[in-house]
Input
Amino acid sequence: MKTHFINSQNLHLIQKQATSCVMALGYFDGIHLGHQQVIKTAREEASKRGLPLAVMSFRPHPIDVLSKGQSIVPHLTTPCEKEKRLKQLGVDLFYLVDFTLAFAALTSSQFVEDYLMKLDVVHAVAGFDFSYGVKGVAKLSQIVADSNGEITVTKVECIDYDGEKISSSAIRQRLLAAAVHEIPHFLGDHFNSKVHWDGNKFQQIEKTMLPSAGIYKVILELPNKQLRTYISIDAAGQIQRMERQRRLPKGIFSIHWLQQVEKAVPSKAI
Output
């Protein structure tokens, strides 16, 4: 998979290198089951047409930019993790667009011309709630008119779990409520965090959202094995081991959050 980081300075150069593709559009934070359905639909369309599959995403979150920093949406996935997951899902091209106030001010037709037609997109796929253009006024179907019929589209309908829409917001709500055991219904897997263990404490590699304070049953994924254990998080987001009798090698681990077992963190654990 080839990744292109797009900003206003290099857009023209990347346009000149573009090849015909089918593109999935969205923010894709967490790459939950709804996102996976969008990408799967786009992959099937790309396969039928014999074209590469591209994904276009954006960073930072539009709310962060449009609120001018007054409201920050915590991420579920780092850019590196998102890139890794997209590659696993068979994506050939990943366009990560720098979301700025200038980008947000593009009209729907300007976005379609500069970011879809000039990147040689022939078919676009997105979720039912995708919107674009200034103030997000244009819906996916508008792409056909904005491209004068040169780009066709497929809308992926809402999917749900037990009547609740599968979304990044639903996952964030469960992290805040410490209901990590429910997250696989939305994400398709346990929520995980990448950390560095220095022999004394864990440190997140890149900041992403963490579950609320408490003690959790987890799987620690080491380079060559997995270990079921318990760890704690305090209100400041400090992560500590609860079982110190087993020695851990220093290094980078993934924490897979299985279930909260206690809400309070005993003082000896922090």
Residues 33-49 form the longest helix (17 residues). The chain has a mean pLDDT of 93. The CA atoms of residues 171 and 183 lie 6 Å apart.
